[in-house]
Design goal:
The chain has 149 residues and is an alpha/beta fold. It has five helices and six strands, in the order βαβααββαβαβ.
Length: 149
């Protein structure tokens, strides 16, 4: 796993895939709740995505989902939108993310960029999250910390 400072959307604009942190909450209209952080930014850029993800959650549960149309992979860090991020759920999600990337039937080019999962609106400290990421993520994954490049 590599770490850089910048804006994850700059890498997405260059054609790279990104991982966004999500939760398992669906609104009455079926859309996934994406109200803060990188999830909100994603919803703003891709207004249909919350409905597609909400449908995935309805049928598959709160799991890692690749959305090729958007070059986005979801990484569940919360069960419900209002909760604090859950370290165990992050660990499970990271395992599924790596399985997805290693799958022979799916062609997701690397590197893949992601924010520090659970460390923004999820209210977790990076010092507690980083060791978990280091167990799962190799140099195909780049953590982007917000800031100047």
């Amino acid at each position: 796993m590599l770490e850089i400072t910048g804006d994850i959307w700059d890498y997405h604009a260059k054609g790279n895939w990104i991982v966004i942190t999500t939760n398992g909450t669906r609104r009455k209209d079926g859309a996934c709740v994406m109200g803060r952080g990188v999830a909100l930014e994603t919803k703003t850029k891709f207004p249909r995505l919350p409905y597609i993800l909400g449908n995935e959650i309805k049928h598959r549960g709160n799991v890692v989902v690749a959305l090729p149309e958007f070059r986005v992979i979801t990484l569940p860090v919360k069960r419900q939108w209002m909760e604090k991020a859950d370290l165990h759920l992050i660990q499970v999600s990271l395992g599924r993310l790596v399985e997805l990337i290693n799958c022979q039937n799916i062609n997701i080019p690397t590197p893949i960029f992601l924010v520090r999962p659970g460390c923004g609106n999820g209210q977790l400290d990076w010092k507690n999250v980083k060791p978990i990421l280091e167990k799962y993520l190799d140099d195909r994954f780049i953590i982007v910390e917000r800031g100047t490049k």
